[in-house]
Description:
The structure holds two protein chains of two kinds. Chain A is an alpha/beta fold. Chain A contains 19 helices and 16 strands. In chain A, the strands form four sheets. In chain A, strands 12-10-9-8-7-6-14-15-16 form a nine-stranded mixed beta sheet, sandwiched between helices. In chain A, strands 2-3-4 form a three-stranded antiparallel beta sheet. The radius of gyration of chain A is 24 Å and the shape is globular. Chain B is an alpha+beta fold. Chain B has a single domain, classed as 2-Layer Sandwich (Alpha-Beta Plaits), CATH 3.30.70. Chain B has a three-stranded antiparallel beta sheet with strand order 1-3-2, covered by helices on one side. The model of chain B has no long low-confidence stretch (mean pLDDT 87). Classes of the chains: A alpha/beta, B alpha+beta.
Amino acid sequence: MTRFLPAEDYLPSGRYELLPFRFERLEGERVLLSNMAGEALTVSSADLTTLVNGDLDRSGALFSRLRANHFLRQPEDRAALELLALKLRTRYARLRDFTSLHLFVVTLRCDHACRYCQVSRQSADRASFDMSRATADRAIDLLFRSPNQALKVEFQGGEPLLNFDLIRYVVLSITERNRQHKRDIQFVITTTLSLISDDTLAFCREHRIVLSASLDGPEDLHNANRPRPGADSHARFVAGLEKARDVLGPEAISALMTTTAASLQRGPGIVDEYLRLGFHGIFLRHLSPYGFALKTKSYQGYDTARWLEFYEETLTYIIDLNRSGVRFTEQHAAIILRKMFSCHDPGYVDLMNPSGAGIAAIVFNYDGGVFASDESRMLMEMGDDTFRLGSVHEHGYDEIFSAPALLSALEDSFTLSAPMCADCACEPWCGADPVYHHARHGDPLGRKAESGFCQRMKGMTRIFIKAMEDPFVAALFRRWALSC
Amino acid sequence: MAEDNGLSVTLDAQAYDPWAVHQAAYRLSDRLAIQVAIDGNTIQCTLYPVTEGTNSHSLLVARADFLREVTDQMLRARIREATEPVRTLILAYTFSRSGLQK
């Protein structure tokens, strides 16, 4: 007599129950499934039908995968629902904290005349486009009304270093007032590095200010994208980078690139330039339909499909670098992959639902205008004040954060109820972007079938899923996701 | 072909949910404007290309895509219906400790 029951006795019994999930067709007969928490699997089209019909073989590997990833449950699986709920709660935990990122547009003046600049800039000698101390004081009052313990203060422009006196004033004021508030505050200056000085860097070191810089690629490309007097933007960037790293340390300076039509053939060269200058990653960023990008028709320089080609080619190059032993990350991918591989939201404002406008980030413009996002103030520079929530001089915290312009945009763009988004497998990794859709389609929801935002997100997801058929890439992407 | 250069598709209303047809029409709205009319037991759809110069072959491809999409939408509706109670339960679990319901 055996002391063990046969293996069949341990197989799940009874009829399995589907858990909520969505699907999207991929190339061929593959289908992408995602559940409420954003966990994903790919299956064949036939398997999807079998799954929904309740006919899946309970002793098969697919059944185990679907059960382990919460796409179905057996009647006895009581923990499955609580686990899913826990993951979902974690995914949305940021909502409870409310606004973290506060952008101070300290000046619209700039020493560059970039063709695609997201804001309409003024010439460098017009002090009327600088933020005043009175405006900054009111913005700081609002900053400390945020319930979020972790606050990020980002100085934007124009070129913010052209009004460094105000940056110094804001940093010192916030630091002083924070002795009472005791928040975790991080300061960031978004700069081209062209005007960085020893004094500036000493102040940054003293107050642990990090720098977010701009590098579009090799010298000729960077200088073509970013004209300035002397045509020396790249040389100034390199000199500023070296100086800043010496003073602040290598991790205190990051760089962003913007893809222009001239970049499209040069993905690997752009990556090589980042490597040459000692960066460990790049954020491949597309143009946005705002500001000078529209006025100068830069935005029309390529469509979403062409950007995705560029993206896939450059991502493949980066993967091959990693394959050869060079550690280098594509940070745009890392953000999305983190959402795919974990229930922790990386807090990227452009990919949040509800939209991060206002409730994750808020913008104080140089003149005191308060905007729901950086893109909102770019729209304002084009004459569209839809997402101007008020003024620091005229409105209080409650009025600004309950402005109908904000609340209706958040509600109308909510992806769990938006047509197409509500049944899209990419929804858990995507976000609502009411400002983009307002700019392109005239309403915060937009028409998803025609949306470049939607096409880009779906396209990137397909690129990732396809690339992960290679076990090396699957492991690499997991590493990126966890380091994001 | 319909008289006005649209392509007609007739569906049995017993087999297809009009809601799924509308959902499919929306999903393809970058390529097709789809007119939906219900007449007794039939759902009459007329597909119009959005872009000019669409040839008859690409319109036939679009029709096949539309039918596939309607089938997908029917499947999505089944999943949604089958999982509605558990979806509500999970959402209730999720927000039960948030304090938002007070």
